Structure formats: C-alpha cells, structure tokens
Amino acid sequence: MKKKALSLLVLLVGVTMLLSAGGQKESAKPSAAETSPVVVFNAASTTDLVNDIADLFTEATGIAVESNPASSGTLAHQLEQGAEADVYISASKKWMDFTKDLGITEEVSPFVKNRLVLIAPLDSPMEPFELTGNTDFPAIFEGRLSMGDPAHVPAGKYAEDALKYYGWYDTLTDRIQPAADVRAALMVVELGETELGIVYETDAMKSQKVKIVSRFPEESHTPIEYFVAYMKESNAAGKQFYDFLFENEKVGELYKKYGFSVSK
Q1: What's the CA gap between 174 and 219, in Å, rounded?
Q2: 50-65 tens-digit pLDDT
Q3: Which family is it part of (predicted)?
Q4: Which domains does the chain have, with CATH numbers?
Q5: 155 in a labelled binding site
Q6: For a tag site, which of 43, 81, 206, 244 has the least CB within 10 Å?
C-alpha cells in the first residue's frame, strides 16, 4: 500500500513538473525589449530629429533604435557594399534612387523638406541681406566658404547648384572648403575657420555659434526634399518604425521643432 502511495506521489510530482515546464515554455516568448534594434541609416542633417523620434519609438514599443548618421551618398555606398539597415533616410532623391536601383528598398516615401541658408560666425560683423542675381556675392567676403562636398553630400550639391545659378561658382571654386557632411560644414564655421558657410536651415537653427545672414531663393536649386525607405531585409520592427514616422502625432511636432516642413 505504501509503495502504491509512493508511486502515485511520484507520478503526481512528475505531471506537475511537466505542466509547470510547459507553462514556462509558453510564457518565454520574446518581449519587445528583446527584439533586435531597428538600424536607421540617416542623413547627417536629420541626426537630432531621428534621435528624438527614436526615443519616442522606444518609449512606445520597447524596441531600441540604432542611428548611423552620415552624408546620404556615404550611406548609400555603405548599403551598396552590404551594410545592413532597416530604414534609410536620404537628403537627396539622387541617392535614394541609387539604392532603389540596387534593388534593396521595399518601399520609399517623401519625408520632409528643408531650406538652404548662408551662415557666418555669431561674432561676424556681416549683417543679414537678401541674395539676388544682382548681389556680387564673391566680393562681399574675402575668406573661404564652407559647404558639403558636392560629390556625395546633398547639401553641398544644392549649394553648388545655387552658386552656379547665379554665376558665382567658377569665381569661388578655389575658396570653397568642402566638408564630409553638412554637420562638418557647420562646425567649420562655428570654429571660425571660414568666413561663411552654406548649410541647411535646420542645422543653422540649432547652433548657438552661427547666425543666418541670408537664405537662398528656392528657385536657385532643386527642391530640398528628403526621402525615407524601409529595406527589403528589414524586420517587422523596421516597418513599424517606418510607419511611426508618418502616423505618430508627436513625431509631427518634432518636425516643426527642428524646422522641417512635411512633404505632401
């Protein structure tokens, strides 16, 4: 009798352990926090914006976001060479089309818009003025001009187009100091290493070391429109972040905070 009771007890304990193990297995599903981070390759001029959006996204979903800011062309070539990203934000349609032609984007949408401005160090004696075709721009300063390298920095290409539009580029070629990205072009002016610089309005707005002395008329260059894509190899969280850019009301407030206008 004792043996039967003992056997029954052992059986009950075994069944209980199996049920417990089964329950643990069921509850061991990965949480949002355990999901792989969303990797965002973003144009350098969107760094602060993307960082704030990432914080909102992580707060809402528990999913981390890793930002890789650089010039749009540099990022496009990294993707071409096999770098992995879930979302790509480009400040140039040219470089977004480049990645589309590689066959690595799943969906592409217009994102935000920006303006091109002329900046000077905060302590510069230069006063704000209007840039027009009658302005003798090369003659109003004697030093160098900081701007992104037109070969791979969209802000630099927009600047080159604007200078060519007014016929100033050839005169200024030897005085241009090309930078690796628009943030670097801004920093050079902040440090007082060049007399003037051409950057995006959003970057100039955030700096306390430079002032905007003029804005380039929009007809002087192609529209400054950013594009965003989520990639074919992106996971579900990457698509979730992509949708978050357009559907979250707080994100819309961040666009205004940083001086971007929303693409229609």
Answers
A1: 25
A2: 999 999 999 999 999 9
A3: Belongs to the bacterial solute-binding protein ModA family.
A4: 38-113+224-262 (3.40.190.10), 116-215 (3.40.190.10)
A5: yes
A6: 81
